[in-house]
Fold these 2 entries.
Entry 1:
Amino acid sequence: MAKKGSKYARKHFVEIKEEKNIEREIAQKPHLEVIYDDVTFVETFHRLPKEDALNAYAMLIELAKEKNKNKESRSDARYKLEKINKSMGLYVVERDGEHLPKEEKLIVRMDVYGRIDRIEPRFKEQKLSPYYRELMQRPLGKHPKMEEYDFENSPSWKLYARFQGFRKIEKELKVYLRQHKIDPQIVKLMTPRDFSDLIVQTFQKDETERRVSFVSNCSVKDQFVKDIAAMHGGQIAEIWRKKGYDERYIRSQLNAMRRFGSTNSSKLIITEIYFTDRVLADLKAENLLYEGFEKGKKIPQHFVDYLIDEGMGDLIAARDEHGKKLLGSQFASYEVHHKYAVSEGGYLTNIAYSNYRNNLCLVPADIHAKILHGNDQVSDGKNDTHSRRTEFIDDDVCFMGGLEKSDQILHDFNKNKSKRMKKDDVHNVTYDDCMRELALNQRLYDERHRKVRFNVDEEVAEVNKFYQNRKRFAKKVKADRRLRKITNTASANEKKIMRAKLNMLMKSKTDGKIY
Amino acid sequence: MEKFIKTIQKECALKKQKPLETAKLIVAQKALSKEGYPLLPADFIDFLKICNGVKGEDSAVLGIEPEDRLLDIVSFNKAHNASENKVILGYDDFCFLVFDASKQCYLLLDREDGEELDDFSKDSLAYALSAILHF
C-alpha cells in the first residue's frame, strides 16, 4: 500500500476522486454509462431504460461527427455505434449516390401519403407552367372527347403513371378536363407540378383545402399499417405485452391500425375491454344500454367500432384506478419508415419500388427520430450527395418494437410482388427522357402557337447537353440500360420529329442563320 | 389559420395540452440563438401559444418543452441542425420543415440531401404546417 503523502498515494487519491465523480455523473445522467464503459457498453446500452439508451445513442452520434476534433473520442464513438447498431440488427451505410430530382421525390411523397399540397395562389405563376395556366383559363367552345386526352403520351404524366395509385385516378383527371372543356393538347405540355395542381383541382372538397387527398380508399402508408396489423397483430401484441403495456392500449391501438391504418397514439381513444360500472352508467345516460350488457362481460367489438365511428368513444374510454382516462399519448407512437432513402431512389430500376411494402417498416417514433434518422442534418451548404444512413441488416424487417433484435418482426414481401412489379415495369420511364420530351413538346407548341423563334447557339448548346446526358446515361447500371430500351420504343414519332429538328439545327448553325 | 387550428384540434386532441408559458419561450429563443440558429418567426410563436407541439401521423411540429419530449425544438435542432440560417420546426419521414431566416420563408427540405422540395412564404404558415402534418 502506498505511503501516506507519497506520489502513489496522491495518484490513488486522484483516481478514486475521478471514479466518484464519474459515478455521481452517471447517477444524474444514466446514459453516460455507455460513454464511459469501454468494455460492456453494448450490454449497458440494452440494460438502460429506452429513453436513456436513446440519449446515449444521440450522444455517440454527436461524438462521431467530423466536427469532433478529438480523433480518439471520435473513433471510439464510431466503434461503439457500430457495435450497438449491430446488436440492434442495424448498420450505417455511406453512399455517394445519384439523388433523385426534386419532382420525382415529390411524386414519391404524394404517392405514399395519398395527399398533395395545394400551391399557394400567389406562387401559382412561379410554380406552374405558362402553358397550363393559359390553357386552363381558355376553355374550348365544346367538350372534347375523352380519348383526345392522351395521357399515355404526356411526358410528365408518365412520371406519375409509374405508380399504381396515380394510374387509378387517370380517368377522374380526364373527366375533370373534359367537363371544363380544356384543350386536350394541354396534357403534352404540362409539367409534373402542373399535374399535382390538376389533381388538387379534381379532388378538392373546397378551395380552402390545403392538402388534398386523391385516394379513394387509403394511402400506401395506411394500407401498409393495416396489412402489418392484420398479418402480425398477434406478434405485435406479444412484444407490447413483454414491455408491460396496458392490455386495453394494445387492443385499442391494434384496432386503430387494422381499421384506419393509424399509428398515432396521441389521437387514440383507449377503450375498456369489459363493461365496468362507469361504462354501463355512461351508456345508460345516453340510452345505449342494450340487453346482455353486464359488468365483467366483454364489450362487443362491433359496438366499440360503432361508438368510435360516431364520435362517442369516450363513453367506453378506459380509466385508471382513480377514474382518470388513459391517454394514448402515454404510450409510444409508431411511424412508417422507408428502409431505403427515397432521395437515393436513383439506384432502383423503377422508382415505383420505393413505396413497395418491402421498403417500409413500422417503428416507434423515438427510435425513428433518434436512431434510424439520427444522422439526418440540415446544413447551409449545397445539396449533399454523400449520405450516411442507418439501415436494417435484414431486409425483411417490417416491424421494430424496441431496441432488441427480438422486438423485430420479419416478413418477406418479395414473394408476392412480382405480379405488381410486372405491371409497374410496363410503365417505367426515366425522368431525363420525359423532361427532354416535354421540352420538345413545349418548343413545338411555341413555334406553332406563339410564333416564337429560338437562338441557334442556345439550341445547339441544348443539343450538346442532350448528347452529354446520353453519354452519361450510357455508363449507368445494366438494368437502367435495359429499361431505357423499353422507354425509347414508346415515342418513335417524337424521336422522328426530334431528329428532323436536330438536322435542321446543325444545318442552320453552319450558315449562322437564325430561323 | 383558425380553420387549420380547428382541424388540428379535431385530429390530435390538443385540448389537453398546457399553453406555452412566455418564460419558456424566452429561454428557448435564447437557447436557439446560443446555438447559432435564427429566432423563431412571430407567426410560429403565435401558433405555439395555441398548439405547443403537434404529433401527426408519421410527422410532427416541434414545440417548446412540450409534454412529448421528443418534440422539443431546442434539442431536436441541436441533434439535426448544422445550419446558421435555418431552424427546424417540424418533420416527417421525408422532410424537415424549416424556417430560413436569410430567405424569410418556410422550406420543406429533403431529410437525406437537404434539397429544397417546396417553399412557402413567411405569412403562409398554415400551408407549411399542413404540408408537414399531412392534413
Note: The two ends of chain B are 13 Å apart (CA to CA).
Entry 2:
Amino acid sequence: MNKTLLSVSLSLSLLVPLCAQAGAKEDFEKTYSEAVSTNENAGNFQWTTTFSTLKAAKSAAESGDYEEANAMASKALKLAEESVVQRKEQATAWKSAVIGG
Amino acid sequence: MASSIRARAVESGGVVSIKALVRHPMDSGFVKDSAGNIIPPHFIQKLTISHDGKNVFVADWGPAVSKDPFLECRFEGGKKGDKLTISWIDNKGESDSTTATIA
Amino acid sequence: MLKTKIISVALGVALVVPYVLAAPTPEEDRKAAVEYYKQMFPDVQINDFVNGQYALNEDRRKQWESLQDFPPYEFAVAEGQEMFETPFANGKTYASCFDNEGIGVRQNYPHFDQSRKEVITLELAINECREANGEKALRYKKGDIASISAYMASTSNGKAFNITIPDDPEAQAAYQDGKEFYYSRRGQLNFSCASCHVQNPGKWIRADFLSPALGQPASFPVHRSKWGELGTLHRRFAGCNNNVRAKPLPAQSEEYRNLEYFLTYMSNGLPVVGPSTRP
C-alpha cells in the first residue's frame, strides 16, 4: 500500500514539471504566432525591435528556456500591437504635418 | 589599368603643396565579411614621394589608415615643371607609382 | 420625393467639391515647401539648398570645400564610366537604353511610366537595361550600381531637375503615396522624415547635422564618410528608417520609388550636384 502510494506520488511529482513545461511551450507557441500575425498586420509600419524580440523569443524557445521565450513573445506581441496602432493613426495623422497644410 | 594614385602638386612661394588620393582597400585584417570570415589584411606599408632623386616624404602606413587614403603634404625646394614620383608598396608586395608635374 | 433626392445629391456634391479643391497639387506643394525653407533660412541662396548641411553650417562647409579638391568618389566615378562604356556580352552598351545615350539625363529621373503605371528611377532603369541585354541585375544600395549612377549623375552636373507628374490619376497617386510616406511617423521612435527634415533642419541630432528636405536628392549617389563608399538614395532611405527602428523596405520597392518621386519633384529647378560627399 505504502509502496504503491509512494510510486504513484513519485510519478505524479515527476509529471507535474513536465506538464508545466508542456503548458509553457503551448503558451509560447500561441503568443509567438499571435505576435507574428499582428506584426504582419502592421504592413509598412513594422518595427525593427519587433523582429529582434521575436528572434530572441525563438532562440530562447529553441534552447528550452520557455520562461524567457514567453516573456520575449509577450513583449514582441506588445510591440507589434503598438506598431499596428501607429499604422492606423498615421493613415490620417500624416496630413497635419504637411507644409502649408 | 588606371593608376591607383591621383596627385596634384602646386608650387607657391618656394613651397610645393601636394595632395594625393590613393585607391586601396586598406583592410586591417580585423574585419569580418557577411559570411563571418576574416577579410585578410591588405594595406599600404610604405608610401614615398621623391623629387629630383631624393625622398621628400616617406609615410609608414598600416592597418590604422582607412580605405582610399587621402594625403596632403608640403616640401621646399621644388620648382614649377619639376616631376614628382609618388609610389607605394603594400603588405602583399603589390605596388604602384605615378608621376606628377609641379604646377 | 424628387425634391429630397435633388437636395441630397446637391448636398453630396457640395461636400465632395471642397475636399477635391482642398487637396493641393504637386506644384502647390513644391511652392509651399520652397517658401517654407526660404523663410526658415533667409540667408541661403536657393541653389545652395542642394548642399544640405553645408549650406547651413560654416565649419562643415569649410571642411567640405577642402575635401572637394580631391573628392573621395573620384575613383568610383571613373570606374562607373568604364562600366558604362563597356559593352555587354551581346555587344550593346547602356547608351542604347537611354535618351541621349544616357549622357546628361539624371535630371529627368525619376519619371512616371504611364504604360507600366509605375515610377522609374535611374537605378531601376540601369538594371532593366542590364536585364534586357542578358546581364544580371546589380544590388541596389552600393557597389557597381552606385558607381554607374554616379557617373551618369556627373554628366548632368548643374542641370536643373525637371521631374514631371502627368495629369494622370496613377501618376498623381504615386506622388500622393510618396507624400504620405514622407509625412507618416514610423518606427518605434515614431519619427517621420518630416520630423527631422521639415521640422528640425539646422539642428543637431546627436552628432549629425540635419539638412532640409529641399534639394536632398540632388546630391545622390553620395559618398558618406560613415560608409567609406558611395551609396544610393534608397540605401539612405533604408538607413534612416532603420535609425528610427522602422523595418526598412527593399531598395527600389514601390514605396521607396514613390517617395523618391515626391522628394525629387520638390527639388525641381535645383541643380544636379551628384555624386557628392557627406559625413
Note: The domain at 5-101 of chain B is CATH 2.60.40.10 (Immunoglobulin-like).
